[in-house]
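Bit of a strange request maybe. I'm writing a small parser for structure token strings and I need a real example to test against, not something I typed by hand. Could someone generate the tokens for this chain?
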Amino acid sequence: MRLSTATVTSREEFRFKIPDGFVLLQDTREQRPLFDGSVEIPGLTVVNTALVHGDYSIKGFEDRFCIERKGVSDFYAYVGKQRALTTVKMEAFKKIVFRGGFVGLVIEATEADLLAGYIMSRLSPEMVRQALVSFEVRTGVHIYYSRSRQDITRWILDRAIKFYKIKREVTL
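Reply from user aminoacidic:
Good idea to test on real output. This should exercise your parser:
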């Protein structure tokens, strides 16, 4: 299944107040990084680095904030062939959430796209749906669906900035 994705084209579409000291971390293993320099967000610093958890994090909060990003085929592998590895990841995510952290899973598709099945997988839509429910209920992972890279970028930044501000309030 090939999904069309919207492209971020204008910085006018983003209105973020980037806090002092905020640095977004992007995993170096990202196949199609969201923050590739094609869109400039004033005040935003993005550093590419190898992350232990997820594809996106915040400098200084790597052990408490992460967002994993998956396409449809990646997600089906995530809950199918890579299930043992995913179970280990979900346990780590559960610990992050338990310690007051935030974990997100962004899926580059609509929920309907994901549950329609994937031709290259033997997983049933019901198995996929139950995996999603388990991620949310069992581990506290927040799930976001969108085909739009712009919307995904906004979702990630909104949560990263809010998390950073809240944690800075607590420590100041």
